[in-house]
Hints:
Structural class: alpha+beta
Largest sheet: 7 strands, mixed
Radius of gyration: 44 Å
Bound molecules: 3,4-dihydroxyphenylalanine
Number of helices: 12
Strand content: 15-25%
CATH topology of the largest domain: BirA Bifunctional Protein, domain 2
Helix content: 40-55%
CATH superfamily of the largest domain: Bira Bifunctional Protein, Domain 2
CATH class of the largest domain: Alpha Beta
Shape: rod-shaped
Distance between the termini: 91 Å
Strand order of the largest sheet: 1-5-6-10-9-8-7
Number of strands: 10
Amino acid sequence: MLDKLNEIKKAALESLSFINDQAALEVWRVANVGRSSPLMQVFAEFGKLSKEQRPVIGAAANRVKVALESALEVKAQAVKNAALAKSLEEEKLDVTLPGRIVNIGRLHPSTQQLRHVLFILAEMGFQVYTSREVETDEYNFQLLNFPPHHPARDMQDSFYIEADPSTGSGRSEDNSILMRTHTSPGQIHAMREASATNPQNPPPIRIALPGMCFRYEQITARSEIQFNQVEGLAVGEGITFADLKGTLTDFVRRMFGAGARLRFRASYFPFTEPSAEVDVECFVCGGVGCQVCKNSGWLEILGCGMVHPTVLQNGGYDPRRYTGFAFGMGPERQLMLKNKINDIRYFWGNDVRFLEQF
Ligand code: DAH
């Protein structure tokens, strides 16, 4: 019996020496000091022993039990220490490492320029009026004095959304739905809204109409299917072309610097009469002539004119009493000129290397 106890102890301690994790340790505990372990069997079979043997074997079995239990305790502590050391090693944190740089978001260059334009116009007393991007043919063309089949419509091949179901046609003369090709239809909305408040004496208007415009174009370095415009509109009694010239001269100086020179060049738009385009002296070469201004010394930046009497009428303003001026410009075009950007596709290409430069 004593030999058997020695066997048990030797085998148990040997197998314990190979253990190095918590789960295996628990298995060992059940197998070696658990209720049905060989050692506990010895205690169970005590009754079969003679009176003389009992104290001897009993004492020996107890010593084995104490030895195994204390060995288990020592091992358990060792396993725990090893696990802690391992997790400390694996989850090591180097607080001296430099932090990661957080990329700060920014406004899109078009938005920046759009806001710049609106800021200047606001200083000059123009209130922002936001109009819709989806329009009817009537507002986008007809009420702006583009009659059906007017050749000027060719300048603005449009994205039609829905043809008039009654005619089955998707084009001009009906009232199809389209993406606005310019911000000018907002003029009609704004005038109608204002004149509806007091049809006999409609109030004066001085507004800036910003927003996205859409044209059905081949996308190239020079043309995109979408772009922003900012439209200006002033309507009231006694407004003359001199007011238009003064306003735009002031605008250009605020935008391009106090010394900026500009010129008005006669042009044509169906919704203004007379119409003009404004050029600024090329700020790349100072007017001497370069690639950007194609050696002319001038850069075209906007279209303008006196609101056509028909358009005033369509807005609810009696053209015998009221006059007005309007202008329209493109923030992306201004940015391209200012920064010598030679490809308009950069604007909606979403390449951060481009966007980050603004
Ligand atoms: N709507 C014109 C365009 O998209 C721009 C324009 C020209 C607007 C003259 C105006 C204006 O208000 O008077 O090309």
